[in-house]
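Review the following:
>
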Amino acid sequence: MAGGGSHKGDGPKKARIEIIPLIDVIFFLLATFVLFTLSLNKSNGLSVQLPKVENSGPRDPSNSVTISITDNNEIGWDKDTISLEEFVTRIHNYAIQVGPENARIFINGDENANYSSARYVIDQIKRTQIQKIMIETRIVPDAERQN
């Protein structure tokens, strides 16, 4: 009999979740997270409270050393706390190894560090003829800026 009877598929259709577009979204989020994480500038020095500034440029950590000065006037070489004598030895060895024209120093000083400690560090770096000395800071968020 043509045209008569009922078909099983005529009722309401069940919803289906498509997996392929879901996987695409997951991979996009994963790739975005990885790229964002890699773009963050991370300091190679000891953990200090950096002074605030209203404008600053990005840092390029390649072929550089981070010298940290803590609030209790300890000196750090990258992540290691070192003595003053060891600092002098390391800065001279670094200048010889890399060459003063290629060496780059980031000074990562706590905002409460003693000025004389920073002056001592800069003087020792200058004695090695290293010219590229950068002071690390943190940018003041717009909400904290005073007009």
Remarks:
- The longest helix spans residues 19-39.
- The chain is about 35% helix and 20% strand.
- The helical segments are 19-39, 84-98, 115-127.
- Strands lie at 52-53, 64-69, 75-77, 80-82, 104-109, 132-135, 138-139.
